Amino acid sequence: MFWLKLVKNFIKILREGQTPAQIAGGFALGSILGLSPMLTLQGLLVWLIILVLDVNLSAATFSLGLFALIAYFFDPIFHRLGYFLLVDINGLKALWATLSNAPITPLTRFNNTVVMGSFVTAIILFAPIYFGMKKFVVVYRATLGVRMHKTKIYQIIDRSSLVQWYKRVRSLGDVL
Amino acid sequence: MRKKFVSFILVPIIIFLIVIYLFIDSWITSGLEYAGEKAVGAKVEIDHLHVTINPIGIEFARLQVANPDSGWKNLFETGKVRFALNFGQLLRGKYIIETMEVNNLILGTKRTTDGSIPKPKEKTPHPPIAFDSTGKPLANLPPLTEQAMPALNPEGSKPSTSFDLDKIKRELKIDSLLNPNNLATFQRIDTLKKQINDAGVQWQTSLDEIDKSKGKLAEIESRVKSIDLGNIKNMQSANDALNNAKSILNDVKNEKSSFINRKSALTDGVNGFGVSLKSLDDLAAQDFRNVVSMAHLPDVSMKGIAEMVLGKDLLKKAYTYLGYVERARMKIQNTSDAPPIETPKRLQGQNIQFSVEHAYPKFWIKKILISGGTDKTEDPQYFSAKGQILNISNDQRATGMPITVNLMATKGGTTTLSLDASFDRRKEIAVDNYKAQLSGLEVKEMSLGQSDFLPTKVSNAVADASIIVDVPGRHFDSNAKIVFKNMNLSFDRDPNGLVECIVRDVLASVKGFNINLRMWRNEDKFDVAFTTDLDDQLTSRTKRVIGDEVAKIQNDLRNKLNSKIAEKRQEVEGLFGEKKDMVTNRLKEFENQLNDKSALVESKKKEIENSIGQEKKKQTDDISKKAKDALKGLFK
């Protein structure tokens, strides 16, 4: 049910409300959170950025869920990439040793293979995701959105009792 | 910037902090218990843990660590434990504890619940025991306990020797024991016979080859005879005859050389078999030992009876302690910045530790101060320990300090135990050392003997022990000296047979004894040496009574075996003698002929040389006579 609401909400924000940049920003930042394991310092930092900047929260939450699912399947690849960066590249070892003994940085858990591998992947993908999403929102609003509204799936989701209930709750007072 | 940021952030943060405040104690308790159970392999329980904020630290009222080998006992339990974490290093993700206070440490207490937990399946059936300091195996050796199992399990590994002489005599099946199929000497003799026959054919061929040379000898003889000294009229004919004789002599020498080579090959072959025949004596001696072993005759020297009687419980205990040594060896390792890649659970990853010399490691307890409590709080049933443990860390290369343990424990005011140990992982090869002294230990009950040999119990004895263990790299060496005093023995049943009677008599008269137990491993072999001052007493008493009987049975066996082997041996020796005579006689015959011909040629050569000498003299005389005559005519 949560996912249903999330998808509905996401489709809604693609159509109206915030700017493409806000939506793409939320989506790209959410991808960093989704790809990386929870409970890291950089994770908290990204949450803070999401909350401080006026990016779209629904896009961030949707992206978090989507990329967490992707991360689950790509976990072995992140592990290998992280192991490669942490162990196999001798030139980086001095940097890792310094970071290990610096204050705060160990709390990022950078020495964990999955954290390292997924974070590096997320950083590399951040720009493509941001610009890709921005372009997608623009195109969606211009053409795809109208077609989407006419599809049966959208109609079913839109008329579902849960979404109707959610709409009522939202209308009581949207904190955002 | 979000307008309602403050309220949006603050509320969750406050809720988050409240949740943490409420639950942090139980989370940390669970975390510590989980980590402890993973390390020990048995239940770890912490009571009333409390996190303190200033300074950041933890204290708890009680810690119980169950014994992984005996779930209803604790390895140890403590009273109040308190420690503070270094805040600066905590920000670096490091757990540095300057001093940990542990009160009322008691060893081996009873538990009210079972503390065992299911053992995880071993990933590898034979985890190696020899490690370098980062836990990489030095060699693919099986675990120490597995290697030690046969050596430390007297009932399981050693064939039980019967001491009932009547039974031995009754059950002794000499014909079966002396079955040719069981005797290596018989098999060797059969092999030798075949080899001698095969070699005989070759020798025959070689001798035939030599015989072919007899024609050459006859030709040499006729050539020598053809030289007629009467035909030598002048120097020219004399020199021709001499050259002819020299040529014949060369041919003789060539024949002689060829013969010597062949003779040498034949003689070596024959002598080789002679040596093989002599080695049958050693094989026969080995056969005798095997026969005695198969007959399960007791060793007349009685060496080992004391080990059998005394070793049972001690060796079992030694095996248990060996397990502790092995566990310490495997658990205490340095982290490595290049560990082999693992396959962790999804989303968990593998943590890589980066070691920097003289920097803080990830985890370091610099000092654990242990107090055994006051005399009033000490329970006389258990050991209360005090002392200190220094430098427990996950990377000794970073701290530059080995783990050292210095404990002194007392029980009931009479028994004392001191333990000094160090676990050094600073260099590539891991080195562990232990030194333990135990005195005044009450041995309320200890089993002696074996189920089939004088099962006995020692009660109310007092024991002192001194144990030194060194484990450098793949090697292992331990020496234990144990002294039993004031002991009383109770025998589980009446003695069975002579030897049990003797051993019982000897034991009944002793009130104490010393034991030296050495266990060691060099390269890949584990060994145990067990000595005791009871050995001599037992041996002398036992020898007096059963030594003669056993020796008689052994002599009987030896005579029968020797006569059987001698009979068989005659076959091969007869065959060998026959072949040897054939070779020797024919070689001799040819050698004589060769020598005759050689002498003949030499003699002819000498005659020719004499003739040449005479001819030269005659010519010289003629010349001098002519010269004299010419001079006479000149001076007339």
Strand content of the residues of chain A, in percent? under 5%
The oligomeric status of these chains comes to: heterodimer
Task: Based on Cα principal axes, name the global outline of chain A.
Answer: elongated
Biggest interface, chains and residue tallies: A-B, 37 and 29 residues
Short description:
With 176 residues, chain A is mainly alpha-helical. Chain A has helices at 2-15, 20-35, 41-52, 57-88, 90-101, 113-150, 152-159, 161-172.
What does this structure look like?
The complex is a heterodimer of chains A (176) and B (636). Chain A has 176 residues and is mostly helical. Chain A has helices at 2-15, 20-35, 41-52, 57-88, 90-101, 113-150, 152-159, 161-172. Chain A contains eight helices and no strands. Chain A is elongated. With 636 residues, chain B is α+β, with helices and mostly antiparallel strands. Mean pLDDT of chain B is 82; it is low at 124-130 and 156-160. In chain B, strand 17 (513-522) and strand 18 (525-532) form a beta hairpin. Chain B has an 18-stranded mixed β-sheet that branches. Classes of the chains: A mainly alpha (176), B alpha+beta (636). The A-B interface holds A 37, 48, 51-54, 71-72, 75, 78-80, 82-83, 86-87, 93, 96-97, 99-107, 109, 111-115, 117, 175-176 and B 1-2, 4-5, 8-9, 88, 91-94, 337-339, 341, 344, 346-356, 359-360.
Keywords:
heterodimer; A: 176 residues; mainly alpha; 8 helices; elongated; B: 636 residues; alpha+beta; 18-stranded mixed beta sheet; 24% strand
Q: Layout of SSEs?
A:
The complex is a heterodimer of chains A (176) and B (636).
Chain A (H helix, E strand, L loop, with lengths): L1 H14 L4 H16 L5 H12 L4 H32 L1 H12 L11 H38 L1 H8 L1 H12 L4
Helix pairs in contact in A: 1-4, 2-3, 2-4, 2-6, 4-5, 4-6
Chain B lengths: L4 H36 L3 E4 L2 E3 L4 E4 L1 E6 L2 E9 L2 E5 L1 H4 L4 E9 L1 E3 L36 H9 L1 H4 L7 H7 L2 H4 L6 H29 L1 H12 L9 H60 L10 H27 L31 E9 L11 E11 L2 H4 L3 E9 L3 E10 L6 E20 L2 E20 L3 E10 L2 E4 L5 H13 L3 E10 L2 E8 L1 H102 L1
Parallel strand pairs in B: 7-9
Antiparallel strand pairs in B: 1-4, 2-3, 3-6, 4-5, 5-8, 6-7, 8-10, 9-10, 10-11, 11-12, 12-13, 13-14, 14-15, 14-16, 15-17, 17-18
Helix pairs in contact in B: 3-10, 7-9, 7-13, 8-9, 8-13, 9-13, 12-13
